[in-house]
Specification:
- The complex is a heterotrimer of chains A (646), B (223) and C (246).
- Helices cover 38% and strands 15% of the residues of chain A.
- Chain A has 646 residues and is α/β, with parallel strands linked by helices.
- Among the domains of chain A are: 141 residues, Succinate dehydrogenase/fumarate reductase flavoprotein, catalytic domain (Flavocytochrome C3, Chain A, domain 1); 121 residues, Methane Monooxygenase Hydroxylase, Chain G, domain 1, CATH 1.20.58.
- Chain A has a five-stranded parallel sheet. A five-stranded antiparallel sheet of chain A has the order 11-15-14-12-13.
- In chain A, helix 3 links the parallel strand 1 and strand 2.
- In chain A, helix 4 packs across helix 5.
- The radius of gyration of chain A is 24 Å and the shape is globular.
- By secondary structure, chain B is mainly alpha-helical.
- Chain B has a single domain, classed as Fumarate reductase/succinate dehydrogenase, transmembrane subunit (3 helical TM bundles of succinate and fumarate reductases).
- Helix content of chain B is 74%, strand content 4%.
- In chain B, strands 1-2 form a two-stranded antiparallel ribbon.
- In chain B, helix 1 packs across helix 6 and helix 6 packs antiparallel against helix 7.
- In chain B, 26% of the residues are buried.
- Chain C has 246 residues and is of the alpha+beta class.
- Chain C has two domains: 109 residues, Beta-grasp domain (Ubiquitin-like (UB roll), Roll), CATH 3.10.20; 129 residues, Alpha-helical ferredoxin (Fumarate Reductase Iron-sulfur Protein, Chain B, domain 2).
- Chain C is built from nine helices and seven strands, in the order ββαβββββαααααααα.
- In chain C, the strands form two sheets. Chain C has a five-stranded mixed sheet with strand order 2-1-5-3-4.
- The longest helix of chain C is centred in the last third of the chain and has 15 residues.
- The chains are: A alpha/beta (646), B mainly alpha (223), C alpha+beta (246).
- At the A-C interface, helix 3, helix 5, helix 6, helix 12 and helix 13 of A face helix 1, helix 2 and helix 3 of C.
């Protein structure tokens, strides 16, 4: 076993990052030219890292499964990006952002990493503005801020409801600039299928060209994974259709440890499910909770009448409405963190107060329109309202929106140390695919912050530190036996998938699996559910490998084959998620164990026994995964019960 | 400035400048023509025609005019061919997008107008320039070519009148999109003023083509 | 709801394509267009046939991956939507729907309804950015941007690079795509610094890649799922002349 060493620099929290940068090893410009870096994924983290590394002078190879790097799913983030700029003079600071993030993560994230995140957050905004991101402005020309869930200050910068898109296009532009300069070679429509390890270090990847189906080998002195989360395992999620966990799962199988796999985030404001043919859930930005009020009927007969459409929401008088978030959490009201808001919605619907199909609550703008006027609301949320109307065919200016929680983000991911390196030397993980910053729950507008922090300001330093030791390593030929073996195993796997010729389509199995995962490892979990999940998932895995039908050929564009490989991995990831959820006998953040709740239904954390990162190690296909613990020490923060009531 | 005119936008710059020049020319042309029907002696018309063919400055402008017309047509056809190549394969169902109707048929109206211009020039312009079979008329003892009578004779033929009117309608179609389009290509776009340019474009088109149509109709029925 | 679908099928870039007619039945009106195609594909898989290939990813109208030419209009008949946001309730039961890929020389068909839009990436690579490197930039609030300019820049920046403008344009012109980037940066002070270089390079690349010339028909504006205005093309023209002549 590799000893888990997070390599956190010595010294006071606020000086750790400065000290690291002051003492880190550097690579001279002449040597940078001799070093190749592979970056997989072109979301905020991948694109910003690739751009920054290219600017530094390294040779970068960038891979994405989409037809263009600009389509990575960071583009779908709507609400905004946090930064401790304190422009509104409302008491924000690096420490407060750090504190809010740790608290929001329910004290399950690593102090030093989170502090560094808060520390570089301001530079991200500077960088993005310099790159031409059209953030919202005041009439004076200065940047505008808004508040977001889980914070009492306004520290969120935004570009209408398309912040993720604008930030990504900024990073994408920076990356394309390096493509133009010849420092980056990029491979669109290319999917990483395996990691190549030579003498214990990550040295390359095996990819499949999604147009021709050809398997290709790529060498790099280091490999950076920026492949996002594995939330698509649930089938219905807000993730992109192609988002997958295969790259990190292959890395896991090759020796990278997986941390807190059961920590997934359920976003409270998604458009509810409307049919079994549905392929995708659509998120409505959390920023809507700034002005919208969430409610369900107080009486269950009203709820039923609303479900049968014999009553309309407007028919209910104010006193018949239950603004349950405002009632339960007076201090934060509708702006409680996501996990709290999600569970509260589930709680109301389970109790029979749900509207729509029964699995929905109202998000009402009636008061906001009354107080602020339609124009202000349109300016703030116009495109979101439009989006809602397109999908649901109802006008949110007139009738309240219906929302329900959905899988949205994975806090869990590959275990990384302070340098963002996994347990495989030379393999780095950045952005959503690592576990490091969000603990058991992520605050709104922090994913964009983390992606860009990792890519623009952290990895370019820590990776250089690693590569300083590699300057004497020559480029390796891809004819080495390690490449050969990896490619062969990928090829065997592909042929195996084709040879099954079963009866069920990949989607059919995925849908079945996803539904189970949602039921048993979703918003609320319990021991017996998780135990049966483990059994059912291994049965489903067997079913998959006996009965899946993959049409077409391997040497052509074949989305069925792509999906099959991803779903095979999702089922295994789901198994590990259930295993992790089972061992964590507490409720924290997005992980809610029904056994561990107060009489009022609030989550009960167990700091004595579970204040650690669960770090899983892959043994072999026929052996149990092994769990290690990275204890979490809070030296600069007082651990408290997360309370959003007062 | 380097290679401005090799770019697609540069070529369109020439087209729009030439187009605007032709738009101005049409007003002058219309003014002179209208003078024909307002005097029985055709004096002002013939005098103007004489001035247009003898003044040095006008001769220079004439060269610019023909140059502009040529460039407008040349680049119009050239870009159209390039545009067809850029499409590659055509759609089986064509675009039903709700856009300005006439903008889709600029090349078609352009072909008709080109044919018209050739016929028009050979009927009047080349005749006056290169063949001597034009009657002569005297005003205050000075002799002038009586181009006016040439025009009146032509417009006594019903088929000729109809042909001209049909061509004017196509010219109107061309102008309805062309007028505003020239401003757009020049980048002259403004939140407040662009809607006015569009209105002026429509008014211009109606007035100019109505004016041109009036001449053969008036001559046919009243002269 | 039942539909008859005429879908363009083409094995690969070199193959000759053709329309194939399919029937789908029992489609819910709440179904999105792509979900309807998913149902069709499930039918094809059940028969051991190859499913129809089409690009899609986020399915919420922002990634720009999807793009089908449906009954003569890119992204279908609705204004301001991408294909994934189009719902079957907009059709009548029994309708025949013809689905084609984007058609443009610079967007060659890869398979079925999938086209290669890497030409757009090449245009961006030629200059669609502000040439600052990471680090060493001033504090964000030292660059003041008038609210109106920021809004206009955002209007332009909303482009998702789907290619509907090229598909809709009778000239297969990419002017609206190029304009959206040029105009975004032209309206921001931090983008003005290299405005001239940017517009020259991007227009040259656009021409080189074989896109057509703009004739101001406005089809791009109508079909743009993000409603990007034609006035940005005027801005592009203006910027181009400024760069070339002044």
């Amino acid at each position: 076993m590799i000893r888990l060493d997070a390599r956190i620099p010595e010294g006071p929290l606020a000086e750790k990052w400065t000290r690291f940068k002051a003492t880190q090893k550097l690579v001279s410009p002449a040597n940078k030219r001799k070093l190749d870096i592979i970056v997989v994924g072109t979301g905020l983290a991948g694109a910003s890292a690739a751009a920054s590394l290219g600017e530094q002078g390294f040779n970068v190879k960038v891979f994405c499964y989409q037809d263009s790097p600009r389509r990575a799913h960071s583009i779908a983030a709507q609400g905004g990006i946090n930064a401790a700029k304190n422009y509104p003079n409302d008491g924000d600071s690096v420490y407060r952002l750090f504190y809010d993030t740790i608290k929001g993560g329910d004290y399950r994230s690593r102090e030093a990493n989170v502090y560094r995140l808060a520390e570089v957050s301001g530079s991200i905004i500077d960088q993005c503005v310099a790159r031409g991101v059209p953030f919202a402005r005041e009439y004076s020309g200065v940047l505008k801020n808004r508040s977001f869930g889980g914070a009492q200050v306004s520290r969120t910068f935004y570009a209408r409801g398309q912040t993720g898109q604008q930030l990504l296009l900024g990073a994408y532009g920076a990356m394309m600039r390096q493509v133009n300069a010849g420092k980056i070679t990029f491979f669109p429509r290319t999917e990483m299928l395996d990691l190549v390890i030579i003498e214990g270090k990550a040295r390359g990847i095996i990819t499949r060209n999604l147009i021709t189906g050809a398997l290709e080998r790529h060498f790099g002195h280091a490999v950076v994974l920026a492949t996002g989360g594995y939330g698509r395992a649930y089938f219905l999620s807000t993730m992109a259709m192609g988002a997958n966990g295969s790259a990190i799962w292959q890395a896991y199988k090759k020796g990278a440890y997986f941390a807190n796999p059961s920590f997934v985030q359920i976003h409270p404001t998604c458009i509810p499910v409307h049919g079994d043919y549905q392929s995708k859930l659509t998120l409505m930005s959390e920023s809507l909770r700034n002005d919208g009020r969430i409610w369900v009927p107080k009486k269950s007969e009203d709820a039923e009448a609303l479900r049968n459409k014999t009553k309309l929401p407007a028919d209910l008088a104010e006193e018949d409405r239950d603004y349950y978030l405002e009632r339960k959490y007076p201090a934060f009201g509708n702006l409680v963190p996501r996990d709290v808001a999600s569970r509260a919605a589930k709680d109301r619907c389970d109790a029979g107060f749900g509207v729509g199909s029964g699995l929905a609550v109202y998000l009402d703008f009636e008061d906001a329109i009354k107080n602020l006027g339609k124009d202000v609301i349109r300016e703030r949320y116009g495109n979101l309202f439009q989006m809602y109307e397109k999908i649901v065919d109802e006008n949110p200016y007139k009738t309240p929106m219906m929302i329900y929680p959905a899988i949205h983000y994975c806090m869990g991911g590959l275990w990384v140390d302070y340098h963002l390196m996994t347990t495989i030397p030379g393999l780095f993980a950045i952005g959503e695919c690592n576990f490091s910053d969000h603990g058991a729950n992520r605050l709104g507008a922090s994913a964009l912050m983390q992606g860009l922090a990792d890519g623009y300001f952290i990895l370019p330093y820590t990776l250089q530190h690693y590569l300083a030791e590699e300057i004497l390593v020559p480029r390796m030929p891809v004819t080495l036996p390690e490449f050969e073996r990896a490619e062969n195993s990928v090829r065997d796997n592909i042929h195996k998938l084709f040879s099954i010729k079963g009866k069920q389509s990949v989607d059919a199995i995925h849908r079945k699996f996803g539904l189970k995962l949602w039921e048993m490892v979703g918003m609320a979990r319990n021991k017996s559910g998780l135990e049966s999940a483990l059994k059912e998932f291994s049965a489903l895995k067997e079913e998959f490998w006996k009965d899946v039908r993959v049409t077409g050929r391997y040497d052509e564009m074949n989305p069925e084959l792509e999906k099959a490989g991803r779903v095979a991995d999702f089922i295994e990831i789901g198994e590990l998620m259930a295993r992790d959820a089972l061992q964590r006998e507490e409720s924290c953040g997005g992980h809610f164990r029904e056994e561990h709740q107060s009489d009022e239904g609030e989550a009960m954390r167990n700091d004595d026994d579970f204040m650690f990162v669960a770090v899983w190690e892959y043994k072999a296909s026929d052996r149990e995964h092994e769990m290690h613990k990275e204890p979490l020490k809070y030296e600069d923060i007082k651990v408290a019960i997360r309370n959003y009531k007062i | 400035m380097s290679n401005l005119f090799t770019s697609s936008i540069g070529k369109k710059l020439i087209m729009s400048l030439a187009g605007l020049f032709l738009i101005v020319f049409l007003v002058v042309h219309l003014g002179i023509n209208l003078s024909l029907i307002f005097s029985d002696t055709r004096e002002s018309f013939n005098k103007a025609a004489h001035f247009m063919s003898s003044n040095l400055l006008i001769k220079i402008v004439e060269i610019i005019l023909f140059g502009g017309l040529f460039l407008h047509m040349f680049y119009g056809f050239y870009l159209q061919i390039k545009n067809w190549i850029a499409r590659g394969r055509f759609y089986s169902i064509n675009n039903y997008s709700q856009t300005s109707f006439f903008s889709k048929f600029m090349i078609h109206t352009a072909v008709i107008i080109t044919v018209f211009i050739i016929i028009h020039l050979s009927d009047f312009f080349f005749k006056s320039k290169f063949s001597g079979e034009i009657p002569v008329v005297f005003y205050n003892g000075k002799s002038y070519h009586d181009l006016g009578i040439l025009v009146i004779e032509k417009f006594k033929i019903p088929g000729f009148v109809i042909f001209y009117i049909v061509c004017f309608i196509f010219l109107a179609f061309h102008l309805l999109h062309g007028f505003w389009s020239a401003f757009q290509t020049l980048g002259l776009d403004h939140r407040l003023y662009t809607p006015w340019i569009k209105v002026i474009g429509v008014l211009y088109t109606i007035l100019v083509t109505a004016g041109f149509t009036l001449i053969p109709v008036y001559i046919y029925f009243f002269m | 709801m039942d539909f008859t679908l005429k879908i363009w099928r083409q094995e690969n870039a070199r193959a000759k394509g053709r329309f194939v007619t399919y029937h789908v039945t029992g489609i819910s009106p709440e179904c999105s267009f792509l979900e309807m195609l998913d149902i069709l594909n499930q039918q094809l898989i059940d028969k051991f046939e190859k499913p129809v290939c089409y690009d899609h990813d986020c399915r919420e109208g922002i990634c720009g991956a999807c793009g089908l030419y449906i009954n003569g209009r890119p992204h279908g008949q609705d204004d301001g939507v991408t294909t994934c946001q189009l719902h079957m309730r907009r059709y009548r039961d029994g309708d025949t729907i013809t689905v084609e890929p984007w058609r443009a020389k610079p967007f060659p068909v890869i398979k079925d309804l999938v086209v290669d839009r890497s030409a757009f990436d090449k245009i961006i690579a030629s200059g669609g950015y502000i040439s600052v490197s990471t680090g060493g930039v001033p504090d964000a609030n030292t660059i003041l941007v008038p609210k109106e300019d920021a809004e206009l820049a955002m209007d332009a920046a909303a482009c998702i690079g789907c290619g509907a403008c090229v598909a809709a344009c009778k000239n297969a012109s990419a002017m609206l795509f190029v304009a959206s980037k040029v105009s975004q940066f032209a309206k921001l002070p931090q983008g003005r610094v290299e405005a001239k270089e940017r517009v020259k390079k991007m227009v040259a690349k656009m021409d080189e890649l074989g896109f057509g010339a703009c004739t101001n028909t406005g089809a791009c504006e109508v079909e743009c799922p993000k409603n990007i205005s034609l006035s940005h093309i005027a801005c592009l023209n203006r910027e181009y002349f400024k760069a070339k002549i002044l």
